[in-house]
Amino acid sequence: MESTRKQLIELLSEQQGHISGQALSQSLDISRTAVWKHMKELERDGYEIEAVQRKGYKIVSFPNKVSENTLQWGLNTDWLGHNLHHYAEVASTQEVVHQLAKQGKPHGTVVIADQQVQGKGRMSRNWDSPKGKGIWMSILLRPELLPYQAPQLTLLTATVLAEVIADQSSITPYIKWPNDLLVHHKKVSGILTEMQAEQDQIQYVVLGIGINVNQDTADIPEGLQHKATSLRIESQQEWSIQQTIQRILRQFERTYDQFIQNGFSEVKPKWEEYGYKIGEKVTISTMKKSWQATLVGIEPDGALLARDEMGNVEKLYSAEIHWGEGGYNA
Ligand code: BTN
Description:
Residues 21-40 bind DNA. Helix content is 31%, strand content 28%. It is an alpha+beta fold. The protein folds into three domains: 2-61, Orthogonal Bundle (Arc Repressor Mutant, subunit A), CATH 1.10.10.10; 68-274, BirA Bifunctional Protein, domain 2 (2-Layer Sandwich), CATH 3.30.930.10; 281-322, SH3 type barrels, CATH 2.30.30. The strands form three sheets. The protein has a seven-stranded mixed β-sheet, sandwiched between helices. A five-stranded antiparallel β-sheet has the order 13-12-11-10-14. A two-stranded antiparallel sheet has the order 1-2. A hairpin with a 4-residue loop joins β12 and β13. The longest helix has 22 residues, at 241-262. The two termini are 43 Å apart. It binds biotin. Biotin (BTN) is lined by residues 92-94, 116, 119-122, 125, 127, 129, 136-138, 180, 190-192, 208-210.
């Protein structure tokens, strides 16, 4: 965006009340006619501007579209997303954040794209990220945690997403261990946590969040339709991507700060509240055996707890879980 326009939006956003044309023209070093022309352009782009004689201008509402300005306006976070980058298209927001991290960008930097052409999923899978249909976002964190605690950030993120989705609609999301979000047994969201660490110190974490938001069934590749869905398909409502991102960032910051202060104990029950098939029977297979067990919860290190028919509780770090009805296998 042209820098004058960006500065103009910043000046108007900082102001509680109106700001005079005179003050704007002085701050931006442009004529008052040029200020007026910029205002008309903003209105054409969907900004609602109030112009009051002898008082000046005020932004009443931002357009409902995703941009650095619209995302930051009214975000109300203390540290998350103050450094925010929005792109129309990237290969993967994960890669962009890795680069920014190496350049020393701060904790809480956020990268969002309308479209990813090489979106990455877990286990080297692709992540389908069509233009304008979902939330494709990566967050840079520089937590003072030990590397073994990093999986807790993923579990925490899954609870944040579940809470935001549940608060905004009548659908009930479930977190399928370790961190897929399901609605009606189909996946709507996935989390990819990547970390740069030494043995006893995390340098940085890149937390990738992908949410299928406004896809119709036809937008979902045919081979995935039996196991993937979108918030729109499940809720029958159109979602504001911009407002949903803002809600996620606010809720994430709150939950993250509590976690850093008080530890994982407050996250664990929330994860379990949304946990998929917690309290239910599933079949578990490892290389050596296959057995029936009841899922009972998670451990702070991210392990899944499963109780076998003899009452023994086992901690699972990697196992194939046959989720049964609908929920495809992990
Ligand atoms: C999964 O369930 O396999 C994880 C999917 C993570 C996708 C997100 S979209 C934003 C970020 N950028 C990527 O390339 N991947 C993550």
